[in-house]
Amino acid sequence: MHGEHTDERSADSACVIDVDDLPDGLVVTDRDGHVLSVNRAATRLTGITGDQAVGRHVRDVFSFRDHDGRDWWKWLDTYGGLSTRTRQPELPLRTPGGQEMHVAARLVRRPERGGEIVRVVITMRDAGARARVERSRADLVSTVAHELRSPLTSVKGFTATLLAKWTRFTDDQKLVMLETVNADADRVTRLITELLDVSRIESGRLEIHRQVVDIPARIQKIIDGRVAAGEPEGRFLLRVLGELPETWLDQDKIDQVLANLMENAVRHGRGTVTVVVEPNQWGVTVSVRDQGEGIPPELATRVFRQFWRGNARRRGGTGLGLFIVKGLIEAHGGSISVQRGPEGGAEFRFMVPTGTPDFA
Q1: In 60-129, at which residue ranges do the beta strands (DSSP E only) sit?
Q2: pLDDT digits (tens, 9 = 90+) for 18-75
Q3: What angle do CA 71, 32, 106 make, to 5 degrees?
Q4: How far, in Å, CA of 297 to CA of 285, rounded?
Q5: What is the pLDDT of residue 309?
Q6: pLDDT tens column, 117-161
Q7: Could you give the CA distance from residue 360 to residue 355 in angstroms, rounded to a whole number?
Q8: Nearest to 223, CA basis, from 273, 286, 293, 280
Q9: What are the residues whose beta carbons fall under 8 Å from the beta carbon of 299, sequence distance 6 or more?
Q10: Do 29 and 36 contact (CB within 8 A), yes or no?
């Protein structure tokens, strides 16, 4: 029994120290800068393998320079500085090929406090991911400003006009203006809700409150609502294939997913919108299909990004809906994809796992 415990602990320790499991690039050098090891992530980022780098000076294989062209290793100055210095904060650097990375260093000393440097541990991350996040935030601010300006201008204009000239308008004119103000206020509310969803998804603070959800019944309710709002009843077809397992989901969020996908199919597709629900090995699969132009395979990976609108000629929406759908599905432990449907249009297919009260 003791031997089993020791082996298990050894296995756990091996996993902890396996540098190839780290998501960030890792390069270890001696105090003089000669490369001792290169992990898999560093090879993926730079294209340089351990066989190519080990034994050579880091400047000859990972020639990092700052934006002013200064040699990062020379600037790191492992022989200089205070004897208590143990790290170099993360900096944006470039390789000779122009690739941008965020690079940090740890100075390993023996003894730990005030001793000589024996190794330098260098970590690197692709700067592209951070740049994309920053661009995404800038786009978010721009989109919010643009989307809010129009309805708020309308609300302000109609409200000011009514206050200044109330007695000059007939009841019918007042009703039209108030209905417009109400619709624009709803538009602002929807935008704020979307922004809150995006914030929760990106920060990992999206909460799932599970209960038993009858997925076909939720779909039928959404269809009934669209028909009541004026859509032709024949525009929608619901098919349930096989006996479905019990699913524990967040009903409001699944309603949001289904409503968004069906709205997307109606707005951007043509013909009948078919929703197919069927069991799978892990839970339930839901497919929402239209008969429109579909989405080219090369664009399939972009569909769930923020602000993706596909055809630039299409108006309306913030481009956040499918990003939010993906976040809601993944928060349930599921997955979503898009492909060409059997009748040529787009088919959005998501899978959610079965659940039990233990996960509620």
Answers
A1: 87-94, 100-110, 116-126
A2: 788 888 999 999 999 999 999 999 999 888 999 999 999 998 999 898 888 888 888 8
A3: 75
A4: 21
A5: 61
A6: 999 999 998 877 666 666 666 666 776 777 778 888 889 999 999
A7: 8
A8: 273
A9: 310
A10: yes
Q: How many residues does the chain have?
A: 360
In single-letter form, the type of residue at position 344 comes to: G
- What single-letter amino acid sits at 220? Q
pLDDT means per 10 residues, the chain with 360 residues, are 46 60 91 93 91 93 87 85 85 83 91 89 82 67 74 90 92 92 85 79 81 95 91 92 92 92 88 94 93 81 73 56 89 91 88 69
Give start and end residues of each alpha helix (H) in the chain: 2-17, 40-46, 50-53, 58-61, 72-76, 127-165, 171-203, 215-228, 251-268, 321-331
The per-residue pLDDT for 129 is 65
The residues facing 289 across adjacent strands are: 274, 347
Q: Which residues are within 8 A (CB) of 174 and not within 5 positions of it... i.e. 6 or more apart?
A: 162, 166
The 3-state secondary structure of 194-224 reads HHHHHHHHHHCCCCCCCEECCHHHHHHHHHH
What 3-state DSSP class applies to 322?
A: helix
Residue from 88, 156, 154 nearest 123 by CA: 88
